[in-house]
Amino acid sequence: MIMQKKIVVTGGAGFIGSHVVRLFVNKYPNYQIINLDKLTYAGNLENLVDVQDKVNYQFAKLDITDRESIFNFFENEKPDAVIHLAAESHVDRSILNPIEFVMTNVMGTINLMDACRKIWSDSLQSNDHLFYHVSTDEVYGTLGESGKFTEHTSYDPHSPYSASKASSDHFVRAYFDTYKFPVKVSNCSNNFGTHHFPEKLIPLCINNIKNNKALPIYGKGENIRDWLWVEDHARAIDTIFHQGVVGETYNIGGNNEWKNIDLVKLLCEIMDEQLARPQGTSTQLITYITDRAGHDFRYAIDSSKLQNNLGWKPTDDFKNALSETIRWYLQNESWLNNVTSGNYQSYYEHQYKNK
Ligand code: NAD
Ligand code: DAU
User: Fold this and answer.
1) 58 CA distance to ligand 2 centroid (A)?
2) Which residues have any ligand 1 atom within 6 Å of their CB?
3) pLDDT tens, 96-127?
4) Which of the listed residues 15, 185, 225 should we mutate to test ligand 1's pocket, taking the one with most ligand atoms within 8 A of CB?
5) Which atom of ligand 1 is nearest to the CA of 138?
6) Is 196 a pocket residue for ligand 2 (Cβ < 6 Å)?
7) Confidence band, pLDDT 50/70/90 cuts, at residue 234
8) Distance 162 CA to ligand 2 centre (A)
9) I want to staple 86 with a disulfide (CB 3.0 to 4.6 A). Which of 11, 109, 256, 299 is the partner?
10) pTM beyond 0.85
């Protein structure tokens, strides 16, 4: 088959990246999809077992902070486009080790853009090329009780993670303004779904409820997040990649705000039902602990630009998507056990290294 496009997806072994890779590999058999990932603790090739043998899928183990290797790889592969998701993504880790976030999220992004500029230099404005930068709503800082983030909200990051993502967003836009480098940016709210590393609130609580362990709630549990199903995010990325305007930014959100404590109580209720435990069993695991430093109070996204201009919409059945997500974790016990024991990290050696 003649491939129409070669697309590098960075961070494709991570949570959102694996959903984006799966969607593109299955929906576009005439696109060659290269998953470029360093396989940090957050990268798990078991997330992609269902597509790993498809002819239009390839995996490349590479670190985006390694400028020379990235340049060589791009010179050899000459991709048409990049969807950039590789990042250090966990706020709590950024508080403990900020420099790693600067290296990957800022320097890594610049390395990728410079490698693309080099190979696309003769055809930068041909519409054949695109650097799609996947970012977060956390760059906008925090909201009070009302209001939503729009694409025009000023940047005001509060954690080392969000500061590193904000910085990378600024570089991406600066490359568009300075070099006419073809970019699109999207800023998304909190995702939930399958294949999510159990350090983030929802998969952590699912795993802990399953194992009768404490559910750690930061502060009073009053902080609010706008939860979006990861498959809706992958669909939004597909829509923006194909129909979005070069140089523009799109906000993506679920229009689905939950206080942390209410969300955890809902998880307890659904899991008691699915595990056939008496209602009320799992809420007893809730444990209030010291708040996260610099904890943003509320995030909420206004995604009307994406909805009105490009026709994307999030699912309107959050509880069903959450129930199905929980069911997946309970039915895929070996995925959860491998990820919590660390076994997933040897999957690459077994499946790829000697091929
Ligand atoms: P994740 O932590 O699950 O996955 C990150 C992936 O990047 C992993 O596969 C990891 O191995 C890879 N990676 C990390 N450092 C690398 C490096 N130096 N070189 C190559 N690969 C490297 O993250 P996620 O939650 O899937 O988030 C993906 C992207 O989406 C990130 O850019 C994040 O900022 C953004 N985002 C996430 C959310 C969310 O709710 N999870 C919401 C909005 C935006
Ligand atoms: O908003 C988008 C962002 O969402 C992404 O850019 C980040 O990559 C992603 O990690 C996520 O950041 P959050 O900090 O909002 O997600 P997290 O799951 O870590 O926390 C969600 C909320 O739950 C937050 O208010 C902190 C709280 N929390 C989290 C954990 C891990 C707890 O109360 N207890 C916990 O143990």
Assistant:
1) 31
2) 10-11, 13-17, 37-40, 42-43, 63-65, 85-89, 104, 108, 134, 136, 165, 188, 190-191, 197
3) 999 999 999 999 999 999 999 999 998 877 78
4) 15
5) 43
6) no
7) very high
8) 12
9) 11
10) yes
Query: Using a 6 Å cutoff on CB, does residue 299 contact ligand 2?
Result: yes
Tokens of 258: 């939950």
What is the per-residue pLDDT across 281-331, written as a single tens digit (0 to 9) for each? 999 999 999 999 999 999 999 999 999 999 999 998 999 999 999 999 999
Residue 180 φ then ψ, to 5°: 60, 30
Annotated domain spans of the chain = 5-261+286-353
pLDDT digits (tens, 9 = 90+) for 174-198: 999 999 999 999 999 999 999 999 9
Residues annotated catalytic, as ranges: 137-138, 161
Of the candidates 227, 225, 322, 316, which has an alpha carbon nearest to the alpha carbon of residue 268? 322
Q: Mean pLDDT over all residues of the chain?
A: 96
What pLDDT, on the 0 to 100 scale, is given for residue 126? 76
CA separation, residue 282 to residues 121, 209, 266, 273, 318 (Å): 57, 6, 10, 10, 21
Please tell me if the CB atom of residue 215 comes closer than 6 angstroms to any atom of ligand 2: no
CATH architecture of the domain with residue range 5-261+286-353: 3-Layer(aba) Sandwich (3.40)
Taking the centre of ligand 2 as the mean of its atom positions, its distance from the CA of residue 321, in whole angstroms, is: 19
CA distances to 17, 265, 313 from 299, rounded to whole Å, are: 22, 20, 19
Q: What percent of the chain has pLDDT over 70?
A: 99
Quote the DSSP letter at residue 277: P
> What pLDDT is stored for residue 325 in this prediction?
98
